[in-house]
Amino acid sequence: FPFRLFPLREHGMNWHARPLTCQEIQAFRKSKEVMDRFIRAYKLMLGFYGISLVNEETGELERAENWHERFENLNRFSHNNLRITRILKCLGEMGYEDYQVHLVKFFLTETLVEETLPNVKRSALDYFLFTVRSKEKRRELVHYAWQHFKPQSSFVWGPRDKLQKYR
What angle do CA 38, 106, 64 make, to 5 degrees? Predict the structure, then answer.
């Protein structure tokens, strides 16, 4: 069977690659070697997207030196958004939920605040946001997106009355 760099418990675009089982996920998570390789693969993909992992403990990110040319690639080729969604889901499977939060917030900031990735905005809002496993962190990210979305009245990813009251 072909393997995936960021395996999931669901089928992706390659129907020849079989989904992971819960037992396989647990085995991966217990293996220091597998988890070290996973983080190396994550850093490699981040580099491809023009992003650097600043802190392996927290998952904190920043733009890489090559961000400008890599962001052009992200804006030009939307198939990257599917890969990013897959990476986000896999981070959750592998126990890196804090990494999910940092990656989603990075894309929300770049799309809504900095406006450097206009062609990634829909994916960030429609897909990336909802990969975050922690309900509380997901709510924080939806609120952050709402705060920076223009025009705010067109924001459809959360109920306006709850967003206005959110603390």
Answer: 70
